[in-house]
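Ticket #4471: structure output looks truncated?

Reporter: J.K.
Steps to reproduce: submitted the chain below (180 residues) through the standard prediction queue, then opened the result file.
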Amino acid sequence: MPLNEQRQGVKRLVKALSIAESLNQWMGRLLASLFYVMMVAMVFEVIARYVFNAPTNWVYELSSFIFTVTCLLGGGYLLLHKGHISVDILYNRLSPRGRAIMDLCSAPLFFLFIAILLWQGTIFFLNSLSFWEHTITAWAPPLYPIKLALPIGAALIFLQGLVKFIKDIFIATRGQIKWS
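Returned output as attached by the reporter:
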């Protein structure tokens, strides 16, 4: 393959990786803003309950939904910023190339887990959607939009994992991420 075509392919790859990382960065910022919504709802509940002696039925459920969606959709953002829990006894003592090789060795397990999560999460969502599942509370909001967050979150983690995998290949083979 001529060098010019190779450079064009690398440029397209870099653009795709950048888009994937931007998507997870944007999602993280959006999810962080949901905590403000949850905080306002909780303050409303406290005032309604203790000042006006009129507790609500919906605030607890809404805050549970926001927390659930945040946890499910935030995995890609967390992976982007290396926030997942890891055992660093050996890992931190390795060179960047050694860490990349170790990550490449564990990548098949990561992708297998995420594929199962995506597959089963989709089934979980589709089952809920098939009978328009709602909660059994007086407020009775629909559950299927919340359950949709599971396959979407798995897809975002998969996408960010793919970005990391490609970067690890570059680091393992070249010692650094150098796109040209």
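Triage note (M.O.): checked the attachment and the full token line is present. The mean pLDDT is 90.
Status: closed, working as intended.
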